[in-house]
Amino acid sequence: MSTQLGHYVYSDGLFIDPIWYRTAYDVDGDAQFLYRHFQETGRADGLSPHVPINNDWYLINYPSVADELVKFGLHNTFQHYLRVGVQRQYAPVPLFDETWYRQTYPDIAAAIKQGMFFSAYQHYALHGAREGRLPGPVSGRNAAAAFTRPHLQVEPRSWFERKLAVDHEYRYHVTRWFSRPLYQSEPDWNGFNAADFAEEPYLRAFPDLASTFSADMFSNARDHWCRCGWREDIEGTRPRLPGYSEVRYLAANADIADSVAAGRLPSGYFHYLMCGWKEGRRGGVQAPALSRRTIDLLEITEVVRDFADRPLISVVMPVYNTPLPLLQQAVTSVRRQLYAHWQLCIVDDASDDPVIWEALSAFAKEDSRIVIRRLPENSGISAATNAALEMVAGQWIAFLDHDDTLTTDALYEVARTILTHPDIDVIYSDEDKITEDGQPASVATRKPDWSPDLLFSNMYLGHMLVYRDTMLSRLGGLRGDYDGAQDYDLALRAAQAGARFHHLRKPLYHWRQSAGSTAAGLTAKPLALERQALALMDALTVAGHPAKVEQSFAPGNWRISTVLPEPGPGYCLVLTGTGRTRPLYGEDYHPVLNALSSVIRSLSLAQRHLIQICILTEEALSADARRELVYMLPTLPTLLVGERSAWPTIINRFVADISQTCVLLMDEGIEAQVPDIFTSLSAWLFRNEVGIVVPRLLSERGSIIASGGFMAADGVVEPLQGEHRLAPGPLSVMQVPHNVTVPSHPCVLIRRELLNRIGGLATTLDLRDAVQDAGIRAIMAGYRIIADPGTECLYVPAAAGQPDSGLLRQRWPDFQDPYYPGQDFGAWNAEL
Fold first, then answer.
1. pLDDT digit string, tens, across residues 626-666
2. CA–CA separation, 463 vs 399, rounded Å?
């Protein structure tokens, strides 16, 4: 054992920092005790023996490190950081700036000189994050976003505890090729005029930057963009302007597309901010054409006349201090319904202004279908709604907020759905948003059909919601403890109770954007976020799947972290490729070895023993490549050779003889960006109905390639291809776990029992089509497919991808995709 900068170095190459270990994990004892604690329990619990270092970032940002590891005989990147990086003031993690931190906090610089800390980063990891100090010239929120990629957390501390995987055991180093930075030096700023920058939309999109101006961190929005925003964009840690489309902008501006392709510009977005917005270039942020649906009054009147039955629909509406004009509009929208068999139950939750009760009394006198009640004291939205439920006479109950409105055909469409689908329990429709004065504010949100896994990511059901009365009685109405998220809690409980949901594919509800309304964003109601998380945790506990619920991407979007039971599922990796080296960045590399390294690099030797690996290539691996495998794996994998056309057949034969629970099919062009892709993907299999899980695939530029697809009328649709990794998509589906129909073939985890049940991969198809076809057959067999954008892989295929041939649609001409709403995914977040 030796020491280096306060770290105890053991013969196995492990570095223990007693100060860090005691402070971070509240474990007391001398260095020898801490060493034993880490070896016996800490490693398995994911603890770090020293301040964490992002290996990938460190190797990528400082290209000389890889050679110096060999040159100096160093064990790992952390030893390099201690021996070399500290002296050079290297940053061991994204967005931490060693030099800036020392200059900004002179007390820390003095403490380093006195030997209290070996680097500014050590202070930040131990104390600075808790003290609220910034890690570099960015706002704390966006620094945390970079640290916790891909989930945007608010607390920098969580980055240290949960997100960095530190490699202790894997001594054999294989370069991570794909994630090398697109730009290692800053772009040429001289060709752009400072006055042309998109200052106004940039500040509107990122209002948190205004506080940095007063603190003299940045002089203006352009200063922020030039100093760190452009790099945050490349790294995929800062969202782009709402409504911006890279694909659309490059398609509309061929000169910019050429410059991006040639490497003269980092992206079209870079040009759009620097001068394109000022120039009025087309294709950047583009407002959609808003229009209202045409409603055929005569046709509806005739259809209602022929109804065999006319179910009574009770509309419940709690009211509290509603602006009188908005209340009148809400009530009027019900009274103007083309379907006349309704009841409106309104409960005033003790509004302060007596005019509210006077107006409600007038409504009730004018129309006997309106029944009203006033509570003696303000009791909350759930209590007021439950009071309204006590007055209902109909067998179906629709929910209406006191400042929203219904389309004139809303209840007609509900009644027709009830008659044509008598076995359903819950109906939800599409919706749009209106401004405070009632003008259109967005295109209609086209929702997927019943998507249970998306419901665990966000309250996608939204408005309008209609419940069967017996289901509401069974659920016990709304729960006051979840006020602010009472509708989400109710939907989750209905799903757990086995309710049958039906999607009415028409926008029947106008959701008003007003101050304090969740239509304007959930940040307007922070308490609602807390109660959404509680509702999710409650639903998971009731289902027997206790898990951690974390905010993902934006308020109101969630990610569930499930701990797999012991023993976990067994895994089999089938890695396919050419078997040859290929050039990248002017050098030759071996894609099979790179893909395999990215998958197993953070796994312990014991974990690698449990994974059965098959490498299937077009030509046999070279002797050098096989020699590398000996270093990487405890036992040599199964090596198979065959023509691409025979791959589905070969895979079927191999899988038939294994006992593992899960099969990971992966192309050699994949480079996993998570520490343990097996656990990350298989965590979703705690739901027995989930048979396939796919990660999100990004290009080497960081743009989206695929995250599962959908079956449109003319073939497979891969949403938001070519867009930024933080592009949300409708309902933020591209940033949260959601259901898809078509798995992305380069990387897919499949239950082995599912493969056996559907008869394996189709042997008459190539591997891409066979995997996609297996997805359709899995859905037909009652399974679901989850796309998890939180599990990311970079993908550089051996050859340019071929466009969809329409073969899958030809094989399944009558298949109706339940999750594809027919909406243009490029129109995401397209609000005025």
1. 888 877 887 789 999 999 999 999 999 999 999 889 999 99
2. 8
